[in-house]
Design goal:
2 domains, cytoplasm, 19% strand, Adenylosuccin_syn_GTP-bd, globular, two-stranded antiparallel sheet, purine biosynthesis, Adenylosuccinate Synthetase, Chain A, domain 1, GTP binding, alpha/beta, 357 residues, ten-stranded mixed beta sheet, adenylosuccinate synthase activity
């Protein structure tokens, strides 16, 4: 009997999806972890017995020893992936990664576009090329995971087309960049696997990216991500794998306070006096600036829960609250109008410190 657990952030991202995925990986060690949105912009932090890894190009079960699968809704950057693979190897993590043939590939030219285009900067970017990749793939200059194993000459022509699409003029520097990128691609043994590969597992953990309030269809435009961050994609994959509704379980994640890393609206902003947050991953960077904080907005939580129910109203629902030891306030369960199967709380960056409450 095949089962699925879907991890979804209820806010603007940074809720604790990585630690929650690791928690479920620890409970279900025979699983594979499936990323169903986003890509290399993820910064999902996992700590196991003092060892820390920030998962971006691998799912957050990798440090625990579980394999990763990136769906067609994800992006892949070969250079970032190669660097992270070496980090994971050194830490004893699992670097087995399967990628759907239609996952979108980010090139150095997409990263340049994200970091240098004024409109992208004003919109908000983490500088990893995600938005540019997704936008480019709406036109004729597409590049998919399956192209990574195409004949070299064909792949090179596609990469040249992408460079010219962004206005790069043919010359020695562009040729050098193209061939360097090709060398990286050719140094990786790609596992390109459609969804039938997932049938070899009876337990699947679906790891979301960012949060429901950044969803490209439901967030406050224009400061949204170029992805469906609800359970929409995960549920569609479950249906392709013929997983019954009764065997799908949701894990909705929130911090004990509101956060947003990047431009855009949030309902309140307050510089909170946080404690025990030495392992915070979301720090200042030149693209997203400071991590903003605020009081937890129960109206937004209820909105996000009701919105996601439009996609998975039938599933069992669990609530996960992270960073419970960082703020001296009580979580007001009575202000949530959804019935949960279980409520879990985390008082530590290490997922073994989760407990049911």
């Amino acid at each position: 009997m095949k089962k699925a657990k879907i991890v979804i952030g209820l806010g603007f991202g940074d809720e604790g999806k990585g630690i929650t995925t690791d928690f479920l990986s620890h409970q279900n060690p025979e699983s594979i972890v499936v990323r169903f949105s986003g890509g290399q912009q993820a910064a999902h932090t996992v700590m196991i017995e003092g060892q820390k890894h920030v998962h971006s190009s691998f799912a957050s079960g990798a440090l625990r020893g579980l394999p990763s699968y990136f769906s067609e809704h994800c992006t892949i950057h070969p250079s970032f992936l190669l660097n992270e693979r070496e980090e994971l190897k050194a830490k004893g993590g699992n670097v087995e990664l399967h990628i759907h043939p239609l996952a979108k590939i980010t090139t150095p030219f997409d990263v340049w576009q994200n970091r240098n285009n004024i409109k992208n900067i004003e919109h908000g970017t983490c500088g990893k090329g995600i938005g540019a990749t997704m936008k480019r793939n709406e036109g004729p200059y597409k590049l998919y995971a399956i192209d990574l194993i195409a004949p070299r000459e064909m792949l090179l022509e596609k990469l040249k087309g992408i460079a010219y699409y962004y206005g790069f003029v043919k010359g020695r520097e562009i040729e050098k960049e193209l061939h360097y990128f090709l060398e990286i691609i050719e140094s990786i043994d790609w596992n390109i696997s459609d969804y039938s590969y997932l049938n070899t597992y009876n337990s699947l953990i679906f790891e979301g990216s960012q949060g429901i309030l950044l969803d490209m269809d439901h967030g406050v435009f224009p400061n949204v991500t170029y992805a469906n961050t609800t359970s929409k994609n995960a549920y569609e994959i479950c249906k392709k794998l013929k997983i019954e509704d009764k065997n799908i379980e949701m894990y909705y994640v929130t911090r004990s306070y509101l956060t947003r890393h990047g431009h855009g609206w949030m309902s309140n902003t307050k510089k909170l006096a946080l404690i025990n947050n030495d392992e915070e991953t979301c720090v200042y960077n030149e693209y997203q600036k400071e991590l903003r904080t605020g009081d937890l907005d129960y109206g937004l939580l209820n909105y996000a829960l009701k919105l996601d129910a439009a996609y998975t109203s039938f599933a069992k629902k669990n609530l996960v609250i992270t960073c419970m030891d960082q703020l001296d306030t009580d979580f007001r369960f009575e202000d949530l109008d959804t019935t949960f199967e279980m409520v879990y709380a985390s008082f530590s960056p290490d997922s073994k410190h989760f407990k049911a409450i």
